[in-house]
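Below sits my pick:
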Amino acid sequence: MQLELLRTEVLRTANLLSQYGLVWMAGGTVCARDSQTGYVVVTPSGLPYEKLSPEDMVVTDIDMKPVEGKYRPSVALNLWTSLLRARPDLQAVVHTHSPYATAFAVAGQPIPVVTETMADWFGRSVSVTPYRSVDDPEFASLPVEILGEGFAVLLGNHGVITVGASLAHALERAVTLEEAAHTYVISKSIGTPCYLNDAQAMASFVYYFNQYGQRTTQSQE
């Protein structure tokens, strides 16, 4: 079996999505790129993760040509590979349907930087795309354009995409964004939320990825 370790990590991350309340049933997707081969490992389409094994993860090249796997990959593989192709700095994509962040996608509203933790992981607000069905010609290009150099984008009337230099980073961003969206909704019910401005958000991001924790030197994503 090729890329056994990465397949194991993709499945482990997929199972964590439901544990964090970000998806249910067979929802969501996890996709990661192997830095050595350039191959992509992605969860299969429409199967509950808790019943799968690492060998059930699908391996393709960056152009979606099948390499190994018995199942059909995520139906949005063209989007996940487009994101990875456009951003060589990224190695992982996580897609969720987390309820509070998805509510902003349904409302067509971006999520502003409302907590320092959100600033740490994103450094900017999170934008939303107009709705595009999976068979729309813009489905795989519009989210890439709107994401730009950011680390998350909301898919209009659908859900959330977070990205990172590792699966751990992409997952933590998915959890952090849902927490921020939830906090924002609560704060609006009790008053007028205060947002971090662009300079404050980016300063927090730079500090977190250079000085926070036990790292002594670490480049930004």
